[in-house]
Amino acid sequence: MDGAWVYLVTGGCGFLGEKIVELLSQQDYIKEVRVFDSVARKEVEKFTTATTRVTVMKGDVRDYDLLLTAMQGVHVVIHTAAIVNEKNTVPFWEMRSVNVGGTENMLKACCALNVPYVVHTSSIAAVGPNTSHEPMFRGNEDTKYSGEVELPYGKTKAMSEKLVLEANGKKLSNGGRLTTCVIRPNAVYGEKAMFLQELYLLAKAKNGVMDYLEPENTERDSTYVGNVAWMHVLAARNLQLKPDLLAGQVYYSYDDTPTRKPFLVRHQLFASLDPSIKLGSHIPYWKIWLMIQVHRIIRIILYPFRKPTPFLSVPLVNTIVTTFSCETDKAARHFGYKPLFTWNESKHRTTEWLKAAAGNQEPSQLHKKKN
Question: Which of 115, 277, 346, 349 is deepest in the core (most CB within 10 A)?
Answer without folding.
Answer: 346
